[in-house]
Every structure is written in C-alpha cells, then in structure tokens.
Amino acid sequence: MTPGFSQRLICFTSKMTNDLILSNVAKHITLEKSEVNYFISLLVSKKIPRKTVLLKEGYVCNYLNYVHSGVLRAYHIDKEGKESTIMFAVSDWWVTDMYCFLNHKPAMVYIEAITDSCIFQITRGNLKKLFFNVPKFERFFRILMQNAYTREQLRIIENLSLPAEERYENFLKKYPYMAEALTQKQIASYLGITPEFLSVIRKQKKGKRIS
Residue 7: what pLDDT? Predict the structure, then answer.
C-alpha cells in the first residue's frame, strides 16, 4: 500500500533520518562506512513549508534536491503565462533543473513544494567533491540520469500517442495518492490539457463508477 501524506510528512513532527536516502544510494552502489559519513557530511537537510519556491526561472541552479517526504513540482511558465508541469517529485525521488545545475546556467524551470516537505540538498560544488573523493558516486548519478531520461522519453511518447483519458488513468496509477494534494490546474498542466477538459474526464470517470 502506498504511504499516505501523514506518513510522508513525518519529519515535521519528528527527527529526519538519513535512512531513506542511504537506501536510495544502496540500490546502485555499495559504500564503506567512511564513504557514508562523507556523503552525509555534504548534505543539508531542510523542512520546506507548502508553497515554498525552491528555484525560480532565471536564477542560477545550485542545488540537487532529494525528497525525503512530501511532494515537489517542477514547472515552466511560457511568455503568455501558461504553466506546464515538467514533473512531480515524491518521496525517494531526486529533482533539479539538471541541465542548468550541471552547466551552472540560469534555471529554466520553477521548483515548488506542493505539500509540507522535507528534503536533502547537495550543492554543485559539493557534488564535484563527492565525485573526486568517492568516484563510485559518478556511477550512481549516471544511473539516476539514465533513468530520468528514460522516464521523460516514455512520457513524451505517451503524450503524443495516448488520448487524454488514458494519460489521466496512467497519472493516477503513477501517483495514486496525489490527486488530493494537487489542484485541477496542476494536474491538467502535467497532462497537457486544459483544466476544463480534465473536469469533463473526471465527471465521465465518476459516472462510470456509479453506473
């Protein structure tokens, strides 16, 4: 069963531990005790209230964020003011404006906390130190980037090939507990449709359940 938001926001009422992020790293590389301690020493933990903007378009992207609990949203705003959601980052996910982070460029996206969230951050400078002192982390982050590229490619293909109703169904399967925390506008911007059309889809889905 997917944990509810009360479980995912536990760090707001108790001590935030390193267990989850270390389990995330252990999926791909094995660390010695000294390497674990060095990695942890480079991280900064933060409690982020809902609606906090961690990154703004045009600002230099200095941080890579690991979501310990809560939900973050990365989105872009075009010249007409229309928002397009790039991704939602939930517990045990990493998120940043990767191109701008790696190349020390002004950000092209915004990153916002959708719920009260707890995160770990590592700076671009500290990531370079980590790669130099613990080279196996280069493999870890290479795998992360490969997985992120794969997810994004599949999402683009899905948006091009599937009708909106199926994209919404897939969204609910991928983020089964998030509908309650997101606005209709935010979900619609992720699916690439209007809030009005999403409302129609939801009504049709509700009607099918009743019948």
Answer: 41
